[in-house]
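G., the chain you wanted modeled:
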Amino acid sequence: MPRGVFITLEGLDGSGKTTQIKRLAAWLGRRGQEAVMLRQPGGTPTGDRIREILLDARSTRLDPMTEAVLMFAARAQAIAEVIQPALDAGKFVVCDRFTDSTEAYQGGGRQLGSAVVLDLHRLICAGLQPDLTLLLLPSFEVSLARARHRNIRVEAETGTNEGRFETEHDAFFRRVWEKYHEIAAREPARVVLIEGDLTIDEVHEQIVEAVAERLLAKV
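Predicted structure as tokens:
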């Protein structure tokens, strides 16, 4: 059986990844392609418990390396339990974040640097790379405002505060933003940059165009 296809969506929180993943999965389904959706960190019972630690606003004073290693612990479990089995079964896997996020947030934002993150990726993920990464980068100000507003709404609705990262200063997110651009410039064959304050439909159109052009013709 041919190997499945691994697609990731990346970007700052508030960039619209969740909405676009659902629309992409539906679009693939209409074309007869079964898509497995998951998020990082998370996607498994163990990964979801790690996610609670990483994103909970009460998790204070986490060392940057601790943070990075926890991200990879959740990722390793997701690969073993969900991603690799789905790929082996010939399915599409559509994942909200992967190692690019760790490179951007911990490598860039926390200033660990790219080298340590990529070394961890090679060791823990056995070098597994997405076939296509869709990097959504609305304007910096719009993304940050959306993320902070969303966390306030979610906390009011659920009592859960996953806004630990959104308490960071703008300089932190500027470093994340710049690292994402660096990744896109470094790996143009894998990363499709979808930039600007576009509508949901406009972003979806660019996503399905990239998927159709780069992947569906090969399936």
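The radius of gyration is 17 Å.

Shout if anything looks off.
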